[in-house]
Design goal:
This protein is an alpha+beta fold and 89 residues long. The chain is built from one helix and three strands, in the order αβββ. It has one helix at 3-25, and strands at residues 56-61, 65-71, 81-87. The protein is globular. The two termini are 22 Å apart.
Length: 89
């Protein structure tokens, strides 16, 4: 594994941990809201609620590759995600 890929993985992990700590310490989760009747609080989702902010589409581009991720909202105590990395054309 190249040093750049390892650094990217470490930074990503640290960001996920920092965000999880932020939401665990806050009294509002990413699914709390006054006008969203169908949404549930992150606390009600259990441990997976701490990373529920990941739900959605993400991408990262460098000069040599593009990485895309898609994450489904938490359900049944889990989240489902997929990732693809494309290099060149």
């Amino acid at each position: 594994m190249s040093p750049n890929r390892l650094t990217l993985k470490i930074v990503t992990l640290l960001l996920v941990i920092a965000a999880a700590i932020f939401w665990l310490r806050s009294d509002r989760g990413p699914f709390d809201g006054d006008d969203d009747e169908g949404m549930v609080s992150a606390a009600a989702l259990g441990p997976i609620g701490a990373v529920s902010w990941l739900a959605g589409c993400w991408h990262h581009e460098e000069s040599s590759y593009r990485r895309e991720e898609q994450w489904m909202e938490p359900a049944g105590g889990s989240m489902l995600g997929m990732s693809r990395t494309v290099s060149g054309e």
